[in-house]
Write a structure and sequence with these properties.
With 669 residues, the chain is of the alpha/beta class. 16% of the residues lie in helices and 24% in strands. Strand 17 and strand 18 form a beta hairpin. The longest helix is centred in the middle third of the chain and has 20 residues. The relative contact order is 0.08. About 6% of the residues have low confidence.
Length: 669
């Protein structure tokens, strides 16, 4: 204990305990053991067998500062209950270490409604992270994934501060003694809380084993026990983060072996970027008797995936074949909007697998704290993009356009995207910043960093996903909720020409056009409750091959003939009634389509008399579609079946549903 515990702070510690044990439930002891447990040196005082394992934590050489927030606990008839109460200002926990602690592991959080919102604690944690750039707050995502009456319960994650890590639970290796139905390490635990955050950020951040985790047992010397929960997965990530930090401080970078002269103190954003960059994809959620839910990277179940040090940092002789090309860039500063930083790499041979599937780039920055209850919580908006041979462009986080929500952005090249000798350029730019912003970048794969690249002649750049819409970098439309009339006057002062565009006094909401460079005034104004950008929604422009006139003529021929086509997608979702797939229900439903309108009178769509209703807006009559996009979408949903023409919709029987059409987009899209 003297070697491990460097500080103990009994905050409001008023235990009622049994059997002389302060940690009645053993929760805190288990968490501490997972982070830094180390077996006793006296090998005769304990035994190792296949059930107990090596009895060591993730970072067995680490030391702990303990802040005890338990204020009440008791055991009755074998059932133990704890009440945890953190201080009202969470920074009081962090400050106890006087700058010595670099990682805070919190296996507790909120439960219930709005647990995923940006609260006072989230703001406090982000402020502290901004002031202490080496400090990383690791927090449990929660155990409400199977709750609120149904499986895969979204918006249940807690601990949504921007500059920390929220940890969800993945399963452990299959263990029939604990859970007979466990699928294994590539699956999310059924109980793990789901994202996203209230403002749409990717949560949980990372996953780690939290199912059947064996660790230290309170009150029993060298004893162990198993727990399950994100409380158990959180210390796994905390211990792993400690190892990442030691890797850089001891000088393992860039050689892959200890070289003290290369050592440096990494920022928390670099440690976080390393873990995100090497995280591994999970396959699905094991919902026990409810079956498997498929999961993909960046979704509400797994976020950026499961931590894996072997896929994150290079150790010479251990993973040379895939990670000898790791490059890190820490505390790179962008001073103002429009600034950018580029790094270029050359792809080299990789003996174990295709090089393109090995390439991963991740940027993380410590974002300024946002307003409590923010709807758009990102303050400084940076963008990362990756190009291959200055031609093919890739956006982060599986998105079709730039990410304007998250302060974690990752690009992984798909198979075949690059080959030996190709050049890959990673660009990080300041799309909109209120002040200078540092970032950390990690790039891994079978690539070599080129200091002064001589790129081949650039062909026409191809955007590999939907084109990003052009945005005005000078002016921006905002919707602001103000607390007082003073706040409203402040809004008027910020508005261009001093004019509020629309005012809703009963709601204390106003819309205005203002300069982007003055957004920070909204953040700092105590009379402003919240704000968000007033987006103009447009139909994404997708690059397509030139239309083939013969195909177009064939389409019109089918529409006017007695031939009906079942689209490929209908069969893929098993919605074709003739294929034995899913059947429509017995009760009619209303399907609302908000788009460019509806082609009323189209021979293959439900018409008047089918129960169709509409809402016309300032964009025009909802029953007139001058663009065609809305009619196309409606056709996919409900084109009439068995009428001998056109196509078959997912819901081909107009007697089973009816449309409500709202014209939310203009005829120009």
């Amino acid at each position: 204990t003297r070697e491990k515990i460097v500080q103990y702070v009994p905050y409001l510690h008023t235990h009622i305990y049994s059997n002389g044990k302060y940690d009645v439930t053993g929760h805190g002891t288990s968490v501490a053991g997972t982070i830094a447990g180390n077996k006793r040196r006296d090998s005769d005082s304990w035994k190792i067998n296949h059930w107990q394992g090596p009895q060591t934590g993730v970072a067995k050489g680490a030391r702990l500062s303990v802040f005890d927030i338990e204020i009440f606990s008791f055991c009755l008839l074998g059932v133990c209950i704890q009440l945890l109460t953190p201080p009202s200002d969470i920074r009081n926990i962090f400050k106890q270490c006087n700058g010595v602690c670099h990682i805070s592991s919190a296996s507790w959080g909120y439960a219930g409604a709005a647990s995923n919102s940006y609260r006072k604690n989230e703001r406090q944690a982000d402020i502290y992270a901004q002031d202490n750039d080496e400090f990383l707050f690791v927090r449990a995502a929660g155990n409400y994934g199977l709750g609120w009456g149904h499986i895969d319960s979204n918006h249940t994650v807690s601990g949504t501060n921007k500059n920390g890590i929220s940890v969800g639970s993945s399963q452990n290796t299959a263990d029939s003694k604990f859970v007979k139905t466990m699928e294994g390490k590539d699956y999310v635990s059924f109980f793990s809380s789901r994202g996203p955050s209230h403002d749409g950020r990717i949560f949980p951040t990372l996953m780690a084993p939290g199912d059947a985790v064996r660790s230290a047992k309170a009150g029993e010397q060298c004893g162990t026990r198993k727990f399950r929960g994100t409380s158990m997965s959180t210390p796994v990530v905390s211990g792993t983060a400690a190892i990442v930090r030691q890797y850089f401080e001891d000088g393992f970078y860039p050689s892959g072996f200890r070289k003290p002269v290369d050592g440096f103190r990494p920022s928390a954003s670099l440690v976080k970027a390393v873990l995100v960059n090497g995280a591994q994809d999970l396959l699905g959620v094991d919902n026990l008797d409810y079956g498997i839910t498929k999961s993909m990277p960046y979704d509400i179940h797994q976020g950026f995936g499961r931590v894996s040090l072997m896929d994150s940092l290079h150790l010479r002789g251990e993973n040379d074949d895939r990670l000898s090309g790791v490059s890190v860039f820490d505390r790179i500063q962008l001073d103002s909007t429009g600034d950018a930083h580029e790094v270029t790499f050359e792809v080299r041979s990789c003996p174990s697998s295709p090089v393109s599937s090995m390439f991963s780039a991740t940027v993380v920055w410590s974002d300024p704290a946002a307003a409590i209850g923010c709807i758009q919580c990102l303050v400084n908006d940076l963008d990362m993009s990756v190009t291959v041979n200055d031609s093919d462009l890739y956006h982060p986080n599986g998105m079709a356009v730039r990410d304007s929500v998250n302060n974690i952005e990752r690009v992984r090249l798909p198979d075949g995207a690059a080959s030996e000798g190709d050049f890959i350029t990673v660009r990080v730019s300041a799309h909109n910043v209120i002040k200078s912003q540092n970032f950390s970048l990690v790039v891994s794969g079978c690539v070599s960093h080129i200091e002064d690249p001589q790129l081949p002649p650039s062909p026409t750049r191809r955007v590999m996903v939907a084109k990003e819409q052009t945005e005005d970098n000078d002016n921006v439309n905002m919707v602001v909720r103000y607390k007082t009339e003073i706040g409203k006057r402040h809004i008027e002062n910020l508005a261009i020409d001093g004019q509020i565009r629309k005012d809703f006094p009963r709601l204390h909401i106003a819309s205005l056009k203002m300069r982007r460079g003055e957004i920070h005034k909204l953040i700092e104004d105590p009379d402003i409750a919240s704000f968000e950008e007033d987006h103009i929604f447009r139909i994404p422009i997708i690059e397509e091959e030139e239309n083939n006139n013969d195909d177009m003529e064939e389409t019109f021929r089918r529409l006017s003939s007695e031939e009906e086509v079942i689209p490929y997608g209908i069969k893929m979702v098993q919605a074709d009634p003739g294929s034995g797939g899913l059947a429509q229900g017995n009760h009619p439903v209303k399907i609302c389509v908000v788009d460019t309108g509806y082609g009323l009178g189209h021979p293959d769509l439900p018409g008047e008399g089918s129960g169709i209703s509409s809402t016309s807006t300032r964009e025009g009559n909802a029953m007139i579609d001058g663009h065609g996009h809305g009619t196309h979408c409606a056709g996919t949903i409900g084109a009439i079946g068995n009428n001998g023409r056109g196509v078959v919709g997912v819901n081909p029987n107009p007697g089973k549903f009816s449309f409500h059409i709202a014209k939310g987009l203009s005829d120009e899209g």
